Amino acid sequence: MSALAVGKNRTLLQLLGVILLMGSLAWASVPLYDLFCRITGYGGTTAQSDQESDVVLDQIMTINFDASKTRGMPWEFKPVERSMDIRIGETGLAYYEAYNPTDRVVAGSANYNVFPYDTGSFFVKLDCFCFEEQVLQPGERVLMPVSFYVDPEIVNDRDAKFAKRITLSYTFHEIDVPEDYAASGASETTKLN
Prior knowledge:
By secondary structure, this protein is an alpha+beta fold. It has two domains: 3-40; 43-191, Sandwich (Ctag/Cox11 (Pfam 04442)). Helices cover 20% and strands 37% of the residues. The protein has one helix and eleven strands; from the N terminus they run αβββββββββββ. It has one helix at 3-40; strands at residues 47-48, 60-69, 76-79, 83-87, 92-99, 106-115, 123-128, 134-136, 141-150, 165-175, 190-191. The strands form two sheets. Strands 1, 3, 5, 7, 9 and 11 form a six-stranded mixed sheet that branches. It has a five-stranded mixed sheet with strand order 4-2-10-6-8, with no helix packed on it.
């Protein structure tokens, strides 16, 4: 085999290696980015916990609630209250209301974030309707709870300690109705009608 042929084969193998590496990185980028955001709170991603804070400070934080939906999502979706004042470390409970005005079953999934982004890792959700898919029957109206607290460590963060307000924002988008969905609906919701 000539030196030219060996050089071409080596170049071809290197090119295939680069293509495989780039494809692997592209495939893994979404889950790795999601993991990075959940760990660091980057981009307003919140933290999760199964226990309440054991420290409650006298400092007050105003929590604003925002709701939106993607184009084509037929539900009506809004927060029950627009804001609440809680002490840092205190557990808060808020509700969002969803209504399916259509004549068909509609399933939805919520994406969320908080603003300012520096506060994301300090906004801790204990329970949230956003952890599961939501399925509404035609004409069904439900209340969907979210329980949370602001981690007292926020007062020690060089950037987040200046925040006086945190906005919790949800965007609902339509998904396929799960095959195993029972007529009783999602367990975390409270039916209003």
